[in-house]
Amino acid sequence: MINMQGVTKVYSNGVTALNGIDVHIEKGEFVYVVGPSGAGKTSFIKMMYREETATEGEVILDGQNLNKIKNKEIPFLRRNIGVVYQDFKLLPKLTVYENVAFALEVIEESPRRIRRSVMKVLDQVGLKHKARFIPAQLSGGEKQRVAIARAIVNKPKLLIADEPTGNLDPDTSWEIMKIFEDINANGTTLVMATHSKEIVNKLRKRVIAMENGQIVRDEQRGEYGYEI
Amino acid sequence: MKFNTTKRHFKEGAKNIFRNSWMSVASIGAVTTTLILVGVFLALILNINHFASNIEDEVQLNVYIDLIAEEDDISQLGEEIRKISQVVSVEFSSKEDELDKLMSSLGDDGEMWELFEQSNPLSDVYIVKTAEATQYRAVAEVVSQMDFVDEVNYREDTVDTLLTFNHYARIIGLSFVAALLLTAMYLISNTIRMTILARQEEISIMKLVGAKNSFIRGPFFVEGLLLGIIGSIIPIGLVVAGYYYLSNYVNLAIPFFDWLPFNPFIWQLSLLLLAIGAVIGVWGSVMSVRKFLRI
Predict the structure, then answer these.
(1) CB-CB: which of B202, B209, B216 is closest to A78?
(2) Which H or E run includes A215?
(3) Which of these, A7, A9, A18, A33, could form a disulfide with A193 (CB 3.0-4.6 Å)?
(4) A218 CA to chain B: closest CA distance, Å?
(5) What is the ipTM metric for this complex?
(6) B295, pLDDT greater than 50
(7) Which residues of A fall within a CB distance of 8 Å from B205?
(8) Structural domain of A129
(9) Nearest of B59, B131, B65, B111 to residue B92 by alpha carbon
């Protein structure tokens, strides 16, 4: 699914965020990316949906070389990737339903398909009954579930989550992880950057640990391995 | 592009105008002011142009033929003038014709000239026309050097002054119009930039879920188009009303000034103003969105 070789990222201000990353992630895997702040986790993740491009090295996603992809093709690449953030990034004036439907409207889906897909995905994340609420009326966990619904409504092959539980209490975090497990069980590859020791150590998956822009550890069924 | 998409762009674009109502009013105001000035200037320039080209059409080069010239000499001179490349027509007018013309142009006073019919003091004349008014000076110089030419005359002072005036009027008028248009465009692009900043979050989500740049651009394109078109309504009204008034009343006061006729000129001008409004609106929006969408 994802193949990185010798990926280095130097920002225009001279900061080296990634330094010679080699990694291979199989289709259907569930991967945690851990490490201290500033280790390069977010840059690493952004490489995958071409929010950033590599200064050196190659990023291959599903057979496509992201360094060589044309600007015009990027939107179509992103339609196969869902992204979830710590701060949800919902549109405050739209209802839950509209926030999710938005993702399909802007890729010009037909209204009929939008209606069907949105209700189905809201059911999947357990928010069907709150479809008419606006984000301000929801709890943090519910907001994150809306964001996840928006990310997966187009059935992406890859779901990327950057600190998805960072703003949530432990109980709510487990609700979110349950949803992620379900999504992964349906065949979607999942990459999640996190600071949550508890989640990583209890829900054992592959762990990629980063420090100073390099991968320092890569274990199947790994542990968090840092003291906070 | 799908019909639903187009409909959405128009809905969103129109919504944007109301969301940023003050900035919209400001840019519509800018377009309106600009287009009123542009409209007045264009009407003026085009009329001056029309007036000048009418006069230019009337300019002719009179070549007075020496009294001693024989018939053969005269026809040979005619041939030589015809050979000059800028010359489009050469017409012979005998001294009798000239006297007739003179008498009829003087009206009743002309009758006294009838005395001269026995001993006509005028010369035979070649009336020469060139393709462009600016070419008379050069042609006159060449012809004056030819044999049996007594004098050449094309009302030099009038024609030269007119040409110079017309030249500068066009340049000044057009640069003024261009400066006005750039100002309006700048103001529109600022409005659109405000809209974009207000919707930055929305745009970043659109990009994230895979919206095409053309799709993101759509509503802003519509917004600019609408701002430009709305801004051109008042100027068109004013120009139409003003020109109607002018052509009805001032025409009577200054009858020698040949105004472009109200119909179709004013409709063409209105259409032009509408088009200019739409173009600066769209251009202003494209300029500001382009910067933002660069990846």
Answers:
(1) B209
(2) strand A214-219
(3) A33
(4) 28
(5) 0.85
(6) no
(7) 89, 91, 102-103
(8) 91-155
(9) B65
Using CB atoms and an 8 Å cut-off, which of residues 162-201 of chain B contact chain A? 201
Name the residue with tokens 């809306």. Answer: A146
Residues of B in contact with A79 (CB under 8 A): 209-210
DSSP SS3 for A7: strand
Q: Within this chain, do residues A63 and A51 fall inside the same structural domain, yes or no?
A: yes
Burial of A97 (0-12, 13-18, 19+ CB in 10 A): buried
User: Among A168, A5, A149, which residue's Cα sits nearest to residue A82?
Assistant: A149
- What are the structural domains, with CATH classification, of chain B? 3-55+161-293 (no CATH), 60-154 (3.30.70.3040)
Looking at per-residue pLDDT, the higher value among B174 and A127 belongs to A127
% of chain B beyond a pLDDT of 90: 6
Least confident of A152-161, B95-104, B128-137, B246-255: B246-255
Q: Answer with the one of A124, A155, A186 that is the final residue of a domain.
A: A155
Residue with tokens 């569930």: A30
The reply to whether A9 and A98 lie within a common domain is no
Cβ distance of B212 and A75 shorter than 8 Å: yes
pLDDT in tens, B55-78: 777 778 888 888 887 778 878 888
- pLDDT cut 70: percent of chain A above it: 99
Is residue A121 domain-resident? yes
With an 8 Å Cβ cutoff, are B205 and A89 in contact?
A: yes
10 Å Cβ neighbour count for B77? 23
Closest-CA distance of chain B to residue A148, Å:
12
**Is any Cβ of chain A less than 8 angstroms from the Cβ of B210?**
yes
